[in-house]
Automatic annotation (TrEMBL), chains A, B:
It comes from Neoroseomonas alkaliterrae. Keywords: Lyase, Metal-binding. One of its GO terms (molecular function) is hydroxymethylglutaryl-CoA lyase activity. This is Hydroxymethylglutaryl-CoA lyase. Residues 5-272 form the Pyruvate carboxyltransferase domain. PANTHER family: HYDROXYMETHYLGLUTARYL-COA LYASE.
């Protein structure tokens, strides 16, 4: 039996959200989700129940979610930033809710305009109020490095992880390298500690901004992590910051696991189709390496 | 005392050699070497005593070597492919000779037009004839993956390492991921085995073609390797194979070590100057991530 890694595809949400200029239509999003699904990806972050005024690219998440329900076996996660989003997501039959806050004060304030304590209290209530049978993914941003506060003291990060762990014995918790500036040794230590203390319930969400995306995926893998967020085409970069590429590319992660003999359930050629589709969305800033490697295009 | 990694800069040879079109002048090479030197890099592969007919970009290695002797503390390595190159290098006062062969039959034949046994016998004689006081770096290519023979059986790779180890008790041996398609678990296993069996005498030479460059550097580091080849600007890509980027970029490696608190002796801003210089050589195919990261440009 080969070892298995679970890829959680985030291009439809994290990747598309940052695209500026032309709005990405609901049809484009569904086409990308379908391409990822046809490549074998069975976990995806597909949208966000936020105000379309605040984040225009996430308009139409209800329709996206409805389309996902037509894809058997797809576990679709929608982000909910607050109680209003939480209720909208449940009203539209979401199976899996994505909560999020930051491990650092600076990023939490900038991103959510709240203190961490405020966010935690709000999300703790949502966790408590989530109906039985609805899954939760709790995303903790800036676990390693913060654009405002710099390198995160490990004890401080782990304190927040411990508090989140205590909210619910089952929900999956993603430890996110939001800036891409986590170092692999740091990722390895945090995951070793978290898994050692609280078991196998953690996912790694990485970015490739500093080129360390795969090194950090590997560092988390070595520590026992088996769930990884990534975006087809490596989209998610910020068009206002040249070089600030996005999420670690799904095709890069899948290639590395493939070379390691780790099963991901992904069809390589179909994944390249999905990655090319993501990368060609107008306004997208693609990243990753594998789409450009001629030898990989010939791999079965 | 922080841990220390030794960076062996290869842009002046491995990086420049593959540039087609306009020849890189001796003055350009010396300027790049000087920029790297001023950034604190004290080990470099600066040229190759090969026929300028075979590899035109390596013409002028004598003059490059003479310039290197004006840079105190610089350990300059020149590659020698055969006895003729060996004698030329010694005649020009080289301090450190770089020998090379492949761990795979296919690449050794394509690159050197010899069987591995033929190459090994020839290089064994050169090792034996190297005068006392002249250092040797023995580069073993395609230790992990070969463009012709695919993934290398680990026992076969380690057999060659063992034979090379036996040639000389002191020379440094580089285990090279020539295609960039080594996987980190493989790199980690090979280095663990090699260092466990034969001690700390190994360097890792990686490419970033498949985006696994830093993951593989980290895998070698974790196994105890402390010497790493890399090229400023990530040059070394092949202009005939779009996407086939070159050596892992020195600035990417140095940034990762910097984030890990590992000392490299490199001045970050001066390294960016050298990396930009390497990347701007006409015909060079630059790689790596860090030159494009705005936040890194502001780092002291």
């Amino acid at each position: 039996m080969p070892e298995t890694a679970i890829i959680s595809e985030v291009a439809p949400r994290d990747g598309i959200q940052s695209i500026t200029g032309a709005p990405v239509t609901t049809e484009q999003k569904i086409a990308l989700i379908r391409a990822c699904y046809e490549a074998g990806l069975r976990r995806m972050e597909v949208g966000s129940f936020v105000s379309p005024k605040a984040i225009p690219q996430m308009a139409g998440t209800e329709a996206v979610l409805a389309a996902c329900k037509q894809m058997p076996g797809l576990e679709a996660t929608v982000l909910v930033p607050n109680r209003r989003g939480f209720e909208a997501a449940l009203a539209h039959g979401a199976d899996r809710l994505g909560f999020f806050m930051s491990a650092t004060a600076g990023h939490n304030k900038a991103n959510l305009n709240r203190t961490r304590e405020e966010s935690f209290a709000e999300l703790a209530a949502l966790v408590r109020d989530t109906p039985k049978g609805t899954l939760i993914r709790f995303n903790l941003s800036c676990v390693f490095h913060c654009p405002f506060d710099g390198v995160v003291p490990e004890a401080e990060a782990l304190d927040w992880v411990e508090r989140i762990v205590a909210l619910d014995p089952e929900m999956e918790i993603a430890l996110a390298d939001t800036t891409g500036n986590a170092s692999p040794d740091q990722v390895n230590r945090i995951f070793r500690h978290a898994i050692g203390a609280w078991g196998h319930r953690f996912a790694f969400h990485g970015h490739d901004t500093y080129g360390m995306g795969l090194a950090n995926v590997m560092a988390a893998w070595e520590a026992g992590c088996r769930v990884f967020d990534s975006a087809a085409g490596g989209i998610g970069g910020c068009p206002f910051a040249p070089g600030a590429t996005g999420n670690v590319a799904t095709e890069d992660v899948v290639w590395m696991f493939r070379r390691m003999g780790v099963a991901t359930g992904v069809d390589w050629n179909r994944l390249l189709v999905a990655a090319d589709m993501a990368a060609s969305i107008p306004g997208a800033v693609p990243g990753g390496r594998m789409r450009a490697v001629p030898a990989a295009r010939q791999a079965a």
